[in-house]
UniProtKB/TrEMBL annotation:
Gene name of the record: purC
Organism of derivation: Halomonas urumqiensis
Protein name, UniProt field: Phosphoribosylaminoimidazole-succinocarboxamide synthase
E.C. number(s) listed in UniProt: 6.3.2.6
PROSITE patterns to which the protein is assigned, alphabetical: SAICAR_SYNTHETASE_2
Keywords: ATP-binding, Ligase, Nucleotide-binding, Purine biosynthesis
Pathway in which this enzyme or protein is active: Purine metabolism; IMP biosynthesis via de novo pathway; 5-amino-1-(5-phospho-D-ribosyl)imidazole-4-carboxamide from 5-amino-1-(5-phospho-D-ribosyl)imidazole-4-carboxylate: step 1/2
Enzyme class, UniProt record, top EC level: ligase
UniProt record similarity statement: Belongs to the SAICAR synthetase family.
């Protein structure tokens, strides 16, 4: 398998073609962005830490029967993935109120959400990823009702697996964002799962171990990501 040209550079990852039309290489960079790219910083080791984190989580999800694009980790900062036709809709599940939900609805941060909520956002930086719903996704052709139903079902399956995994490390999975795509017509989990796209709090102290440390200027961002890795058993190899 040969690495070919760069196809796309996102805010934290770059995507490369390979000599196999069905496979891509994701390169996890040290770049860290917040507020739709308004704030950018390079954090040492982040690419490596997130690549390992994502590989570990994707393998767990695959073992639990959730189809993912992940094939294998190639190096410290690169992974091989299936090429998906991405669906431009972000799926967010919240177990505990934080972030956008608190801002939007004025509910108390830290309130347990029973049942957990499910929200859809359009992936569009220029519009700041506006909240959408199934009707809008259907009308504008972003995803069909059947695809959305499958995305919702898979997003909640991920919740069951990961809530348990993080709880074993003394961490609360507060919320997270997933992105899906199509591979041979099947809905498959794409993008990444790392502390960049979820909120993780210490179950007892509620200390933050995720990207909110960067957004809120708390420092110790990568150290916190590494601590999560240790707690859930990610080895250094
Ligand atoms: O900002 P908000 O509270 O809506 O985010 C919910 C969850 O989704 C958080 O864990 C956040 O990190 C993640 N998210 C993301 N990328 C976005 C929007 C939200 O990873 N574009």
């Amino acid at each position: 398998m040969e690495k070919r040209q760069e196809l796309y550079a996102g805010k934290a990852k770059s995507v490369f073609a390979t000599d196999d039309p069905d496979l891509l290489i994701l390169n996890f960079r040290d770049d860290t962005s917040a507020f739709d790219g308004e704030r950018m910083e390079s954090l040492e080791r982040k690419g490596m830490v997130n690549n390992r984190f994502n590989a570990f989580i994707m393998e767990k999800l695959q073992l639990a029967g959730i189809p993912t694009h992940f094939e294998r980790r190639l190096s410290d900062t690169e992974s091989l993935v299936k090429k998906l036709e991405m669906i431009p809709v972000e799926c967010v599940v919240r177990n505990v109120a934080a972030g956008g939900l608190v801002k939007r609805l004025g509910v108390e941060e830290g309130r347990e959400l029973t049942p957990p909520t499910f929200e859809l956002f359009l992936k569009n930086d220029a519009l700041h990823d506006p909240m959408i719903n199934e009707s809008l996704a259907d009308t504008f052709g972003w995803a069909t009702p059947a695809q959305l139903a499958e995305m919702k079902s898979l997003t909640f399956k991920v919740n069951a697996v990961l809530k348990q995994l993080f709880a074993e490390g003394g961490l609360l999975l507060v919320d997270y964002k997933l992105e899906f795509g199509l591979f041979n017509g099947e809905i498959v989990l794409g993008d990444e799962f790392s502390p960049d796209g979820c909120r993780l709090w210490d179950a007892d102290t509620r200390e933050k171990f995720d990207k909110d440390r960067f957004r809120q200027g708390l420092g110790g961002v990568i150290e916190a990501y590494e601590e999560v890795g240790r707690r859930i058993g990610i080895g250094a190899d």
